[in-house]
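Researcher: Structure prediction, please.
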Amino acid sequence: MNRRLFLGVLGAVGTGGTLSLLNGTINANQEQTTTVNIEKLELSDEEWRQRLTPDQYNVLRKEGTERPFTSPLNKENREGTYVCAGCELPLFTSETKYDSGTGWPSFWASIDGHTGTKTDFKLILPRTEYHCARCGGHQGHVFDDGPEPTGKRWCNNGVALKFIPKSEA
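Model: Predicted structure follows.
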């Protein structure tokens, strides 16, 4: 087990704090509860298959993981919003994005109430998985090895996100 994975696993059981940023509230808590009233989107498996690409379906609906360093979003540096590829709920702002060097788009905080979490034991040791609060689509995992001000790394599958530039918002 490498140091990053070990620290990430240890951090998965911790909790974070909250931070107000710009015009919205950003939440860095790992054990989040949705406080925003978001109408749930529930579709049949067949409807999800029609709506999503095979890669998006594998990640969002089957909790898969894309290969590292394959997402064009790794190099996205414009101002804007990152939304769920399944339902377009805003999940992250460009102000919270950073290059973690892990090969996946990473953020130091999510938009408050727009993600939910659960404990994931797929690698035996516990990790905190997060998902879209509207459609339940799997996004990635949150770790305690990120930058200040939160110390969190929201490690996201690029295929689970769409980027909306500020000029189009």
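Model: Residues 3 and 68 are 18 Å apart (CA to CA).
Researcher: Thanks, that helps.
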